[in-house]
Automatic annotation (TrEMBL):
Record-given protein name: Gamma-interferon-inducible lysosomal thiol reductase
Biological source species: Anabas testudineus (Climbing perch)
Entry-linked PANTHER family: GAMMA-INTERFERON INDUCIBLE LYSOSOMAL THIOL REDUCTASE GILT, GAMMA-INTERFERON-INDUCIBLE LYSOSOMAL THIOL REDUCTASE
Enzyme Commission number(s) from the entry: 1.8.-.-
Subunit structure: Dimer; disulfide-linked.
Family, as annotated: Belongs to the GILT family.
Length: 258
């Protein structure tokens, strides 16, 4: 009796389960093109892992995008850093699975003064101006995120504004932006930012203050500050985009040389 035969059989079955089908078991009766067509055939043909993975990267199961809210003020150094180094780069890479809501107001104070509101900002008049320019841009142009990124990554946020607008939305006249900034439109929009910020629950204690799907916890804040990219990828319930690295994870099934 050849004692090696059962051992070889066991090894084959083991390899099959371990390495997802280097050795095909005899119950695989469908052609390779159909291996992934059902869970049963994938298991029978020992290619379950591969099928799951290829389905994973091929079919983009859609889910609600992750909503990232940022409550900030235009001249706060921590806000500028988060906006330029975490939020905007993440949005550029993951815009398929996330939305961004920028609320420039932060620790400002609002007073009702007749028909208008007046605002006082933590870092002075210039910050109020920066907040107002950004608020108007968010209302006026599709390129607002790019322009705000450009402003916040410049040495002088306010001075950079006009050239950032020219760069990212040449069709938008600076005069129009300033009409909004100095007029009733900007005043009303900033009031909405004030209301939105005051309505935060829990109330914000510092800026940048991050919300994820409308929610703020210390844990989410910490994770967002460490790597918003990782947080958004991990929270997204649909099929992860290739950017998230899901496609790269399983390529370590080898068939050893005997
Ligand atoms: C792969 O996707 C197809 C179609 O979406 C599905 O019918 C099949 O069951 C999936 N296979 C596996 C192994 O999940
Ligand atoms: C701009 O603001 C006005 C209110 O002043 C609002 O009705 C409109 O929907 C806003 N547009 C955008 C694109 O946010």
């Amino acid at each position: 009796v050849n004692m090696k035969a059962p051992l070889l059989l066991i090894l084959t079955v083991w390899l099959n389960t371990q390495y997802g089908g280097c050795a095909l078991s005899s119950s695989c009766s469908v052609p390779p093109s159909k291996w992934c067509s059902s869970l049963d055939s994938a298991i029978q043909c020992g290619v379950l892992k591969q099928c799951l993975e290829s389905n994973f990267t091929r079919d983009h199961k859609a889910a609600d995008p992750i909503e990232v809210g940022l409550y900030y003020e235009s001249l706060c150094p921590g806000c500028r850093m988060f906006l330029t180094q975490e939020l905007l780069p993440t949005w550029v890479m993951l815009s398929d699975i996330m939305t961004v809501d920028l609320v420039p107001y932060g620790n400002a104070q609002e007073k009702h003064d007749g028909q208008k509101y007046t605002f006082e900002c933590q870092h002075g008049e210039q910050e109020c101006l920066g907040n107002m320019i950004e608020t108007c841009l968010l209302n006026m142009t599709q390129a607002a995120f790019q322009i705000i990124y450009c402003m916040e990554s410049s040495a002088d946020v306010i001075k950079a504004a006009q050239s950032c607008v020219t760069l990212y939305d040449p069709s938008l006249q600076w005069g129009k932006v300033m009409n909004c900034v100095n007029g009733n439109q900007g005043n009303q929009l900033m009031h909405l930012n004030a209301v939105k910020t005051k309505d935060l629950n829990p109330p914000h204690q510092y800026v940048p203050w991050v919300t994820i799907n409308g929610k703020h916890t210390e844990d989410l804040q910490q994770k967002a500050m460490n790597s918003l990219f990782t947080l958004v990828c991990s929270m997204y319930q649909g099929s992860k985009p290739a950017m998230c690295g899901g496609a790269k994870r399983h390529y370590k099934s080898y068939c050893d040389k005997e």
